[in-house]
Structure formats: C-alpha cells, structure tokens
Automatic annotation (TrEMBL), chain A:
This is Phosphatidylinositol glycan anchor biosynthesis class H. The keyword Nucleus does not apply. InterPro entries: PIG-H (IPR044215), PIGH-H_dom (IPR019328). Residues 88-157 form the Phosphatidylinositol N-acetylglucosaminyltransferase subunit H conserved domain. Keywords: Membrane, Transmembrane, Transmembrane helix. The keyword Transferase does not apply. One of its GO terms (cellular component) is glycosylphosphatidylinositol-N-acetylglucosaminyltransferase (GPI-GnT) complex. It comes from Chelonoidis abingdonii. It comes from the Eukaryota.
Automatic annotation (TrEMBL), chain B:
Residues 12-124 form the PIG-P domain. Pathway: Glycolipid biosynthesis; glycosylphosphatidylinositol-anchor biosynthesis. The gene is PIGP. One of its GO terms (molecular function) is phosphatidylinositol N-acetylglucosaminyltransferase activity. It comes from the Eukaryota. Its main location: membrane. This is Phosphatidylinositol N-acetylglucosaminyltransferase subunit P. It comes from Chelonoidis abingdonii. One of its GO terms (cellular component) is glycosylphosphatidylinositol-N-acetylglucosaminyltransferase (GPI-GnT) complex. Part of the complex catalyzing the transfer of N-acetylglucosamine from UDP-N-acetylglucosamine to phosphatidylinositol, the first step of GPI biosynthesis.
Amino acid sequence: MEEGMYRAVCGGRIALQRRQYSASCREFSVRCPRLQLRSLSAATCSVWLAAYGLFVLSQNSMVLSAAIFITLIGLIVYLHFVKIDQESLLVIGSLGIQMTSSYASGKENTTFIEMSQVKDVVINEAIYMQKVIYYLCILLQDPQEPHGVSEVVPLFQSSKPRLDCLVEVYRSCQEILEQRKTSDFTRTLN
Amino acid sequence: MVENSPAPLPERAIYGFVLFLGSQFGFMLYLVWAYVPESWLFSLGLTYWPQKYWAVALPVYLLVTLGIGYILLFGINMMSTAPLNSMHTITDNFAKNQQQKKSEEDAIPALRDITISEVNQMFFLADKGICNRN
C-alpha cells in the first residue's frame, strides 16, 4: 500500500492511497482534509453575530433561537450531503469498476460499472467555472456497439486532484485494462 | 456586387452623417420635452406628448437593463458550458463522421481528429512504452 500527498485543483492538500490486491485488482482512495475547527467556528460566529445584530435591530428573541436552529441544521445537512471525506476507485480487471464516496457523516454512495460497459479510462480536460481542469473519467460503451462512446462518467468529482495525481491513477488503470485486451485477444483466438 | 470590406465609401459617409444629424435632433427633442414646462408647449399647440415621467424612467430602465445584461451574459455563458459528464467534451459529429484515409509510407499522415484514448496514451504513457499505436 502506497500513500502520497498531492494537491487538489483548488489548492488544498489531498492524500492518494494505492492498494494492489492482486495482479488485476487495485484500489485508489483520495482523502480530502477533514472539516477544520477554525472554519466551523468562523461560520458559526458569523451567523450568530448577524443574528445578534438583527436581534438588536428588531428586539425579537426568535431571531436568536432561529439562528441556533439554522446553524445546527445547516451543519448536519452539510456533513451528510455535501462534505465528502474520501472517494475511492476499485478496479477489478475481469469484473468491473466500483466508485465509492464516503461523506463526513458516515454515509457512503457506491456505483458499480461492469467491465463490458467500460471502453477506457482517460484524463479529459474541460472548462469548469472559470478554469480548465484535468479530470479522470470512464468512457462507457454500449456492449452491442463497441465503437463509440455512449457515456462519460467523471471520477473524483469533489476532491478534484491535479494532473500529477491523475497520471498515477491513469497509468495504474491502463495496466489493468491492457490485461483485459490481451485476455480478449487470446479468447478470440481459441 | 458589393464587396464586404470595411473601407470608407461615399454611401457610408452619407449614412454616417444622416445618423449623426438624426441623433443630435433626437437628443435636442428629448431635452426640450424633458425641460420645457408643459404650459409653454401647450401654448405652441403641441399637446400630444408622452408623460414627463418617462423622461426620467426610460434612462433608468436602460441603465438597469445594461447592468443586468452584464450579469445575464455571464450567466448564459456559464450555462452553455458543457458539464463535465457531457459527450461534447470528448467528441462531436464531425469527428464521428470523418473518413478514414489509408496512410501511405513516408508521407505525412492526413489531418484528422484523434480519439481521446490515443491522445492520452501519447501524453501520459509514452515514456513507459505501454501504448499500442496502430
């Protein structure tokens, strides 16, 4: 198992963990930094100060309890629906590719794509907001029509690693996908 | 036959001068309408004018539209940008329907759209020698 520190597109630090389970099975996990105490307290203080300012203006104490409520609910919603702690990619050569996103509240989202639908894993560049970013994506093919891309599935959407990290993952994935091509070739020969 | 060139021509000079006169006249008319009291205009016999309220309202409308237009243009730009999971970032109809020409030996290959898989292999795998080039 190897671990490396890289940077995300926005500048934050992320960690890439690579695990090789067998010759045709590898897992890549990208971990984002956890929610910082200082950003949490900064957000809470600003919301509460604004609420106190409103209270001083309107003399209505409901504003204060509403602010507390909003802060609590907002934090829970953020941790459960927005803040992704870890995104991992499990590539099993003969079976398929599985993507997992784990949120800060413990929730996990998993998507599995079987290998007959996977055409290739490539690094694509696209315009995102005001930047052009590199991102890793899986090109899907229709099993009945192997010459043609039916869908594009972007990977590592919330951690957005930079090109150096993506090239590592790309090279490892290509080694596994190469084995699939040679095994297909030997199967068509027999 | 009219050539599409931006060179100055006599007709364009005339158009420009007519536009200049028209815009100056329009501006003077607007000033007269906005500033001269209604009683004086009525005494001249000119009674059918729009309300003077519009002399202030229309410029304000125009400026607000201009400001919103900046923001709207920026927003339309961002909305028409293809999302990251769209097929338009990979290929388009021209690339899908291009003819495959046979490449001759010792000749520069014909210009064509290269698939993203090939491009990736050339960029990121070339020094490791894993790429399979056809």
